[in-house]
Amino acid sequence: MIGDILDLVGAVLLLLGSLFCLAAAVGVVRFPDVLTRLHAATKPQVFGLLLILSGVALTLRTWHVVLLAVFTVGLQILTAPVSGHMMARTAYRTDQWDDQHASIDELADDLEAAGFRNTTDDDGGLVAGRDHLV
Asked: Which of 23, 40, 55, 66 is buried most deeply by CB count within 10 Å?
C-alpha cells in the first residue's frame, strides 16, 4: 500500500520535473538576451532536476539511488549558480547583453572604478580591457 503511494508521488515528481526542464529549454530558446537565457538555464533547470531525482529516488527506494541523487543535486546546486554568474560576467564585460532594458547597472560603477572599459577597435569590433596609465 505505501509502495503504491510512493510510486504515485514519484511519478508526479518526475512529470513536474520534466515540465520544469521543458520550460527551461523553451526559455533558453525564446528569451531575447544572454542574461534572461541564463536565468532560464539555471533556476528552473536545477529545480526540475531536483524534482526528477526525487521522483526516481522515491520510485526505486534503494540507498544507492538516494545517495547518488543527493550527490548529484548537491553538485548541481553548487555549480549552476557559479557557472551562470561567470557566463553573465563574461557577457557583460564583452557587451553581449541588452543594456537598453536593464533598470539598474551596479556593476558598471564598480568596473569603472577599477579602470575597466569597453572600447571598439579600428574594425568596429568590441575590445574589452583596462585603462593603463603610461
From this structure: 55
